[in-house]
Amino acid sequence: MTLLTDDQRQLQDMARTFLAEEGTIKKQLRHWRGTGCKDGFGHGLWKQFAELGLTGVVIPEDQGGLGLGATEAALVLKEIGRNLTPSPFLTTAVAAAKALEGTAQGERWFPGILAGETVAALAIDEGKHHAPEAVALEARRQGNGFVLNGAKQFVVHGASADLILVAARTAGGVGEREGLTLFAVERGAHSLEVENVNLADSSKAARLAFNDVAVDADAVVGEVDDGWTPLSRALAAGRAGSAAELVGVAAGASDMTVDYLKARRQFGRLIGEFQVLQHRAAHLHSEVEIARAAAWKAAELLDRDAPQAELMVHVAKAKATRSAQLAVQEGVQMHGGIGMTDEHDIGLYMKREAVLGQLWGDWRYHARQVAELSGY
Amino acid sequence: MADLEEFRGEIRAWLEANCPPEMRTRPRSEDDACWGGRKWTFSSDAQRQWLEVMAERGWTVPDWPKDYGGGGLSPAESKILREELRAIGARQPLYSFGISMLGPALLKYGTEEQKCRFLPEIARGEIRWCQGYSEPGAGSDLAGLQTKCEDRGDHWLVNGQKVWTSYADQADWIFCLVRTSTESKQGGISFLLFDMDSPGVSTKPILLISGYSPFCETFFDDVKVPKDQVVGEVNRGWDVAKYLLQHEREMISGMGLGGGGSALLGKQLGQIEDPFLRAEVAAFDIDALAFTAMSEHFMDQLKAGEAHPAMPSMMKYSGTELNKRRHELVMAAGGSDTLEWESERTRGGKPAREWLRTKANSIEGGTSEIQLGIVAKHILRLPGA
Ligand SMILES: Cc1cc2nc3c(=O)[nH]c(=O)nc-3n(C[C@H](O)[C@H](O)[C@H](O)COP(=O)(O)OP(=O)(O)OC[C@H]3O[C@@H](n4cnc5c(N)ncnc54)[C@H](O)[C@@H]3O)c2cc1C
C-alpha cells in the first residue's frame, strides 16, 4: 500500500464525515432492525450515497460514474464497516457494477444505480459454503431466450433487488469455470420464488427458487458460456471490498474496546492498567493494521491490473476476516457482561463479522485458493 | 514521473552490468553475508566486487547524503533502487550495524566532525560496529545500566561489563551506553563511541543454543576514551539510545521475510501431502503476505515522515513472531531430516540451527513483551503502560 493521494484523502474524509453523521448504528442499523423493515437498510440513505456520487464510484466516467477504482471503493467500505451501516453499496455499487462493466446490460442498469434507485444482488452460491464453480442452476435455450431452473442461497439483498445477476450453467459440468453464463434477471420475474431471510446481523439475504424462469437472450451479461469473466471481475471487486469493510468492522470494534479499557474500573484501577489486557490490545491493534495494509495492497493491485492481484485479494479477504474475528472476540471478552447484552454495540460488530466473513468465501476458502494458486 | 522511469532504466542497466551473478541470491550462511570491517576476509571475489561497486556509488546507503558516503537519493529514487535490487534477487552488499543502527543516530545527533569521520567508513564497510547496550543486570530494563564512565579531564574512563554483544569479537568499534551520572536513571546515561582495540577492552564469546557463538560478554577495564567521542549531550544519551532502537527494530522486523511475495513458504516447500500442514502453511503465507504489505506501507510512511514513532515496535513484534512461526513450519515440513545436527545432507544442521536462531528474534532489540508494552503506551495510550 503506497500512501493515499490527495484526491483519495479527500474522498476518505467525505465518506468518513457522511457515514459518521448519517450512517451511525443508532440512525441506521438499530433503526431498521427495530422497524422490522424487509430491506434491512434505508432507501433514503442509498439516495444520499447517490447524491454524493458514491454509487458510481467504479462506474466509468463516460457512463456518468466517478470512474475510480477498488482503492476508492475500499475507503468508503471501511467507513461503512466502522459504522456497521446497512446499505447495498458493496453488492450494487461495487460487485454488480464491476460485473456489468463494458456490457450492454451495464448501459441498461447504470443510470438507476447512479441515481440511487436501483439495488442489485449477486446470486452465485447454491450450497452453504461458497463455491462459485459449483453452479448447477441450469439455463436451457428456448426460443429466443433461456429458461432457468435451480436454486440459490445467500443472495445478499436478494429480496430488495431490482436486478439479480444469476450465475447459471449453459454448458460443462458442475465444478467447471467454463460453461457458466451470467444472467440479468429483473425483479418480479415470473415463477421466481423469493424467500427473504433475516440473518444474524439483521441484514437480509434471499433464497431463490427458479422454476422455469424465462429470460430473453439479451439478459446475458457478457458472452454465453463465458460468465466466468464478468463473475470473476465481480468476485474480485466484491472480495476486496468486503475485506475493506471487515477492516472497518475490526477497527471499529478495536477502538471501542480500547476506549472501554480506559473507562471501566475494577480493583480500584482502570482495567486498561492490567498488563495482560494491554498486551492483548496491542496485539489486536497490530493485526488490524496489518489487515488494513493487506486490503489496501489488494485494492491497489486490482487498480493496476497487476498479475499478483488475484493472490492478494485472497490474502486480503482471509487476513481481514481473521483480524476482524480477533477484534470482535477480544472486544466482547474485554467488555465483560455488558458485551453480551443486546443494548451494547460491541455484539453488533461480532454479528456483522460473521456475515461478511462468509460472504464470497470464508477465510479457509481463501487460504485454499492461496495454496492452489501458489502450486502447493 | 518520466524522470523516475528513466532513473529506473539506468539503474536496471547498471545493475545488470555490475551485480555479479553469484550475488543474486540470499546469503547461504552468516559468513556468506558480507559484514566488512578491518578483520573481514571476503569469501569470494564476487562478494568483494559487489561491495566495492555499490560503495563507489554510495548505494550501500542510498538515502544518506553524498558528503557522508551515501547515494543522496530521494525517497522515490531509493524505493526504485530497492525494487530493482529485489527484482534481480540481489543481496545486500553489506550487512552492518553501522548502517542500520549507528548511522541514523549519528545523522540525527552527531556533530559535523563525527558525521564526517564515522559515516563514510560505515558506508564503505571499512569499520564494523557492535552494540554495547545490555548488561547482566540491565536487559529489558535497559536504563538500569551500570557501566561506569568518569570524566578524567582530558579523557573518559570506562569500567564495567556488557553482555550479549553481537559480534563483539569481530567488531572494530563499539557504540556503548554508559553511566555518567547516578543522579537519575535515564538522565545519567551517555552514548559513547570507542575503538575495540583500546587497551582494557576484552571479549569472551558465548555459545548459543544453535551452536553458533555470534555474541560475547564484553569487559571494560580502565578503558580511556577521547572526550569528543560522546554522541549528543552528556547525560542525554538515552534519547540517542531510544532513537537508535527504533532503527534496530525496523531492521529486525524485516529479517527473514525479505523478498516479499516471492518468499511464499508454500512455494518453497513445494507439494505438501499432509492436509493439516498444508493448511497451516497457507495460513502462514496469508499472514506473511499481509505483513509484507504492511512493511511496504510502513517504509512509505517512514520516508514521507508520517510514521508513528512507536511503529517500529509494532513491526518488530509482528515480524519476529512470524519468522519464528515460519521456521517451526520448515522444521515440521522437513520431518526427521531437519533434526540432523552435523550431516552434510543438512549442510551442518542448517535447518535446526536456523530454527533455533530465530527464537532470539523476539528477544534481541527488546523482547516482544516490551514491544507490546510500547504499542500499548504510545499508540493505544493505555493508562499506566
Ligand atoms: C541473539 C541476541 C543478540 C543480541 N545482541 C545484542 C547486542 O548486540 N547488543 C546488546 O546490547 N544486546 C544484545 N542482545 C540483548 C537483548 O537486547 C536482551 O536480551 C533483551 O533486551 C532482553 O533482556 P534480558 O535478556 O535481560 O531479558 P529480561 O529483561 O530479563 O527478560 C526476561 C523475560 O521477562 C520479560 N519481561 C521483562 N520485563 C518485562 C515487563 N516490564 N513486562 C513484561 N515482561 C517483561 C521479557 O519479555 C522476557 O520474556 C542480544 C540478545 C540476543 C538473544
TrEMBL record, chain A:
Cofactor dependence: FAD
Occurrences of domain Acyl-CoA dehydrogenase/oxidase C-terminal (ranges): 225-355
Family recorded in the similarity comment: Belongs to the acyl-CoA dehydrogenase family.
Gene Ontology MF annotations: acyl-CoA dehydrogenase activity; flavin adenine dinucleotide binding
Domain Acyl-CoA oxidase/dehydrogenase middle: 139-212
InterPro entries the record matches: Acyl-CoA_Oxase/DH_mid-dom (IPR006091), Acyl-CoA_Oxase/DH_mid-dom_sf (IPR046373), AcylCo_DH-like_C (IPR036250), AcylCo_DH/oxidase_C (IPR009075), AcylCoA_DH/ox_N (IPR013786), AcylCoA_DH/ox_N_sf (IPR037069), AcylCoA_DH/oxidase_NM_dom_sf (IPR009100)
Protein name: Acyl-CoA dehydrogenase family protein
Domain of life: Bacteria
UniProt xrefs under PANTHER family: ACYL-COA DEHYDROGENASE, ACYL-COA DEHYDROGENASE FADE28
Keyword Oxidoreductase among record annotations: yes
Acyl-CoA dehydrogenase/oxidase N-terminal domain sequence ranges: 5-117
Keywords: FAD, Flavoprotein, Oxidoreductase
TrEMBL record, chain B:
MF (Gene Ontology): flavin adenine dinucleotide binding; long-chain fatty acyl-CoA dehydrogenase activity
Segments forming domain Acyl-CoA dehydrogenase/oxidase C-terminal: 235-380
Record bears the keyword Oxidoreductase: yes
Protein name in the entry: Acyl-CoA dehydrogenase, long-chain specific
Superkingdom of the organism of origin: Bacteria
EC number: 1.3.8.8
Keywords: FAD, Flavoprotein, Oxidoreductase
Needed co-factor(s): FAD
Keyword Flavoprotein on entry: yes
A Pfam family that the UniProt record links to this protein: Acyl-CoA_dh_M
GO cellular component: plasma membrane
